Amino acid sequence: MLLEWPDEQIKRKEIESLLRDFTLHIRRLNHTSLTEQEFRRVIHELLLAQDDNLIDRYGNQQSYVNWSFINSFFFAITVITTVGYGHLTPRTIMGKIFCIIYALFGIPITSLLIGSVADRFSKLYSPKKLPRGLKRTPTYQRQLSTRFLMLRRGLISLVPWFFAFLVVPAWIFRYLEGWSFLDGFYYCFVTLSTIGFGDYVAGSFEKNYIWIYKIIIVFWIIFGLAYLSMILNFITNALRSRRISNVMNSLRVKINSNGNLATRIQQRRQQDDHHCHHYEPQQSTMLTIFNDQQFINNNFFINHNNNQ
Predict the structure, then answer these.
(1) Whose CA is closest to 158, among 227, 89, 92?
(2) Which family would the database say this protein is a member of (predicted)?
(3) Are 166 and 185 in contact (CB under 8 A)?
(4) What is the CATH number of domain 65-130+140-267?
């Protein structure tokens, strides 16, 4: 809000001043067929046409065909990858119904595809050799924690993704789209994070190489999402291993405490059996049961208080 709100207010004042001046010019013309209501209607129709990509920002008609085969193919990819730029949207009833059905089946299948590609990528970063000074023994996990391994793999895999899928495409979009490097980098990040604002969309022009250009963008989106999914899996596994280790440690403490309690009970029973020879059997048995029960209750309350 603090970053964007002042700029929005400045643009609102500029548009308000522009509309006010233009309305005054229309009134000075005193033309009966061009009223203020007619002018607002024309502006409304032009804005709707711009939303449908029928005219550019200057009001000129575009030769760009929205629903050509390659543009429809690119729209389908943005749907099933959940990028959803919003630069194209179905307008007809049948188109909206088909888009819903297509997304219901296409998104899960695409998620499986991206997951399988991410698994292929993860094998590239699997540790084939152990670090120096470590042997492949059952105590290997104790020597080097799983969280450190996951963190290292995540950081190593993040650097190629940053340059190959963000920096290099940003420079390419700078020359092909006419954007600045920051705008290209912003578009790459918004796309691969599936945010998809739609303020920047690559390939919104008509040239001879548009087919190859958009197919390359499609592969860039799929492999970029798969690579990012692999990095997120590394981070998730690291956090999950931490939770598992905490649970195992708590269980180990409980097992040790229960084992010590059982040992102390057994020792107490052996002591009571030793004293049974000096007392009557019936009386010593009753005393032993009572003392064992009192000993268990005392240890139970002690452990319960310690856990709290």
Answers:
(1) 227
(2) Belongs to the two pore domain potassium channel (TC 1.A.1.8) family.
(3) yes
(4) 1.10.287.70
